Description:
With 447 residues, the chain is an alpha+beta fold.
Amino acid sequence: MELIGSRFAFDVPAEWAPEAREADDEVGAASNEVLTGFTPNVLLREWQVRHFYRGVLALASQRSLRELAKQHTVLHVEAIPDENTPSNIGERRRLWAFSTREIPGTNGDLLSLLTIRDLLVTEETLAELTVTVPLTTWRRGDVHEAILNSLRPHRRNRLDALLRGGNRAPGTVMDTGEQTVIDEWATQRDHATREGLGLPETTTSVPGQDTPFPSNPFKPGFFEEVAELSEKAFKAFSDLALLGCLKKSARWSSAGRELVRAGLIDRKGIATAQGERLIRHLRDGRHMALLVDSAPQLLLTFWIHGQEALAAMSFVALGTRALAFCPAKRIPQLLLSLISFQPSWDMNFSYTLTRNEFLAKLLADIPPRTATSGDAAEFSEQRWVPVSLLGPDEEPKLAWVMTPHRGVAILKDHGYASEITLTSDPNESFWELLLETSTRLAEEQHP
């Protein structure tokens, strides 16, 4: 079914229903299915472009990126070739973002949503088409991407214009007076205007940047917070979980008193109901972990028991661990929310370096000799922070390095002790690899 705006049109499945919108420059539709408590929907917005120039799409994209980032985790930005645009632009933008929303009628439970937004411009009009769908039901190449791909300029014929009120331009005018921050390196590489994708006002941390993770990363709705313990108290409680009793010397120590205050043991050193709950996970659960090898090191560990997971965020600099419970099936979405992505333009490279070169880069910021040109050289000039997703055997199931401005590269050692391969493939979005790997690990963890 074709839906038509002022100057653009797009297609939705025949069973979707158009939605009435208050604004004249908006056209919307919703699915006939409710998926995990949410109805997938699409919204078209349009603006007049009175001052067209080559960088107008970059300006619109940068503005949209910063708008999304206020309430979303922006995962990726794409420049997609499109013949429907003026020849001096020749592409559209596609922005991918993750967010959460409270499910109505629940006790603060959150729904994970994926927002995909396309921006397309002609010499007269800017179109923004946004699809929102539950993250867990989205699949690459599904109907939602087909809706976005169908966005195109449209001029009504004379009869249609008479019946529907004329072939008028959108009532809202795009402000083109704002200065676009340009990514000079990417612009030169691609021979096309590339806006900077930095988010200077972001409030969440990015591995690879100087800002540390928040002291308590557990978000209400995602986690049921338990306590924040010192390392000594956590070690004493771990001994209780493994030995079945608290050492006499520890019972009256500062660690023991801390466990009493946290409600995990009573004054006799016996685990409370909440303490027993933790013990089941520590003793019987299998684990997975996220290791950020920064300075100081950060470690987020999950012990999964049945359908529930115990999460522990270790802060070496503070000497503490924050403990919380969460549903095991939510672990992939939790990782997306905790790892703050700094969007970057696609990079395409693969090169091998020795472990000594890798250590030299991490410790002294010496670029590898094998990264001599193009994307590889640009990536090697960035500061690297290694991150690993560890399985129950404590071996990395997905390893990567993050940078402040040029995204991530996947690390593989192929079983060789002396060499490591760094790869960045534009056909494999990192956030999808993370989601796929963490989902597989979480689903395997039911003892």
